[in-house]
Amino acid sequence: MRTITFAIDRFDGSRSWTQSFAFDHVPGMTVLACLIRIRETQDPSLNFTASCRSAICGACAVRVNGNAVLACDTMLDDLLEEWGQDTLRIAPLGNFTVISDLVVNWDEKIERLRLARPGLHARAEFSASGGCRQSPRDFQAIQKQWDCILCGACASECNKLADSRADFLEPFTFTHASRYARDSRSADSMLHVNGMLDNGLWKCVHCMECATKCPKHIQPVEDIASMRGMATAGGRTDGPGPRHAQAFRTDLENTGRLNEVKLVPRTEGLLSAATRRLPFTLRMFARGKLGVGEAIHLFFADNRPVEGIDGLRKIIRQRRRDH
Which one of 47, 81, 105 terminates a domain? Predict the structure, then answer.
C-alpha cells in the first residue's frame, strides 16, 4: 500500500510548527477528504475550514507546496503526479493573518472589499420602471466576474501584496469593483473606479499569479487593466501610472520599440527621475553595468519605425476604438 504524507503547518495562536501525518493512499480522494481523514483518525485538534465541498463557497482554500488551491476541488492523485513525490506541504493561504493551523482571518479583507463599493447603484430609468433588466450581451460582459467565490487564492499568491499590503488591495477586490463599474445598469461607473485608483490600481506588477491560481479562471489582472482604461477615459490621467502607460503607447505607436531610458523621465518627470534614479544610475556606472557611451546611445537610440509598424498602429487604433 502506498503511503502519503502531509506535512502541515500548525499554529496555536502563539507557536508555529510543522507536523507530518502519514496515511494510506486511496485513489480518488481530494485534498479536503485527506484533511478530514487526518482529523477524524489522527488528530482532532487540526483546524481548517470547509463547507460546501462543491467548489462553490471558497472556504477550503489552502496552499499545497506553495500554491493556492481549493482543497475540495483538487485531486490528490493529480498533485502526486504533478510533483512526483508522496510528501506534500500543506499551509494556510499567504498574505493572510493566520488564526489557527490552516484557518485565516478574513475580517480585514472584507473591510478592504468595501472600498470597491460592491453594490449596484442603478440608473434613474431603472428606478422609475421598478426593474433592472439587461440584455444577455451586457450580462455576458461581466458574467465571469460574478463567478468569484472569495476563496482568497488570488490574494494568497499576489506578489504585490507580499511586498506590501499598505498600498494595494487584494485582486478579488479589483474584480468586484470591475464587475459593478462595467455593469450596463450602473448609474456611476467611476464610483467604483475611483475607489480603486486611491488604493493601488496602477501598482499591479503583472505577475499573473492571480490569473493562474484562480479556481474559477477569473483574471483580476484583466479587471485591473479594464478599470485603468475607464479611469483614463474618465479624465483621471494624473500620476506616474497613467503617464507610464501613455509613454509606453507613444513609443510603440511611433517606432514599435521602447526607449526605456526616456520612459522613466516621461513617467516620473525629469526632476524626479534625475533625483530619485541618480543613485541607482551611478551604482550601475560604478559596477560596470552601464557605460557613458552606452547611456548616450540608449537615449538617442535609432527612432526609425520597425518593419511592419503600420500593422501595429492599426491594432492600437482598433483597441482604442473598442474601448
Answer: 105
* pLDDT tens digits in sequence order for the chain, 323 residues long: 899 999 999 999 999 999 999 999 999 999 999 999 999 999 999 999 999 999 999 999 999 999 999 999 999 999 999 999 999 999 999 999 999 999 999 999 999 999 999 988 888 887 677 778 889 999 999 999 999 999 999 999 999 999 999 999 999 999 999 999 999 999 999 999 999 998 999 999 999 999 999 999 999 999 999 999 999 989 998 888 998 888 888 888 888 888 777 787 888 877 777 677 778 778 877 888 767 666 666 666 667 888 889 999 998 888 777 66
Domain with 161, as residue range(s), is: 107-233
Q: How far is CA 278 from CA 54, 83, 271, 281, in A?
A: 54, 45, 10, 5
With the CA atoms of 241, 245, 250 and 251 taken in that order, what torsion angle do they form, in degrees rounded to the nearest 10? Answer: 100
CB proximity list for 217: less than 8 A, separation 6 or greater: 144
How many distinct helices (H) and strands (E) make up the chain?
A: 17, 7
State pTM to two decimals. 0.85
Strands 87-91 and 61-64 turn out to be antiparallel
Q: 183 and 201: one domain?
A: yes
Query: Which cell numbers hold the place of 283?
Result: 551604482
Same domain, 130 and 217: yes
